[in-house]
Give the backbone structure.
Amino acid sequence: MTQENFEYLKKQVKYTGFGDALEFALKDNMEKGAANFQLQHSAEFGKDKVNALLNFRLSEQGMYFFNSYDMTVQKEGVPDMKQTFSVYGPQSVEKKGEAIDGEPKKEWVNSNITFKEGYNLMQDRAVFKDFVSKEGEKYSSWVILNAKDTDEHGNCKIKRLKDFDLKAKLAEYPIKELDNADSKKQLIESLEKGNRPTVTMLFNGKEEKRAIEANPVYRGIKMFDGNQRTIMQQQDPNAPKEGNAQTMAQNTQADTQNTIKNDQAGPQHESSNQNAPQGEQKNNQSATQAESPNDRQGLQNGQQNAAKDTQGQAQNAQKEEKKNANNNRQRRRNGVS
């Protein structure tokens, strides 16, 4: 074991969302020189118990690598869900239009799915990540787990989705948090990590709490009441007809009480380090000014009228989602496709 190898892996584990609690176990296993070893990490999100096994391997050159982590989500009353997420090193790319002393400025792109993002993906939510193309250029894309496409080990393959403008879609709703640049930025970051934050919405001059999710599959926003029932889902009429099923039946009431602040704070870990960072923070574009509450209020009134006309369709869609959710859980049960 080299100190440089240890320092690199320590940071990689931390920024993949596992914090600092595994540092001593990591060093101890590396000093023993085993060809392979695993580290265990546990957390709770609402009523869900989440366990992860971090997989490390010793190369022929004597360097250890953090290859992947195996996640298991335990929910009350349903079979365990399992998924393996691969881990890669960050990639260096040139920042377009920026240079230092005539040399192109570089930036590091980390495409790894963090621990909390992995949990969110397993709830059939979407996560917004940065990637590097074959041409060495940075690009961003929403990702989901595709339950219809699994590998030989029963893992759902990751599907990338483009052409969804979250900021533009949010502006169509009377969300109070959009009126403040800081709270707007926090809201967007939370949704991009796959969280389901609670927002304040204005209905006929009255404030009501709603939990929302980004839904790039249908290029829309999913909205939930306090009982986790879908109450509205606006979508682009040109969006694909098929997409990732929403496992509504598996989400607990505790999720609706998550605020943006709680989303950023991360889970309560079993380790003593309660303040461990929960994943690499990525840069976001500067928040833009939201349209006025009056403008959004007028737009919302129109949306409410349209929602009444489509209420029957929404109920049928919800029944279909529950049916698809049952199929997804069967695919993930004990790692069987």
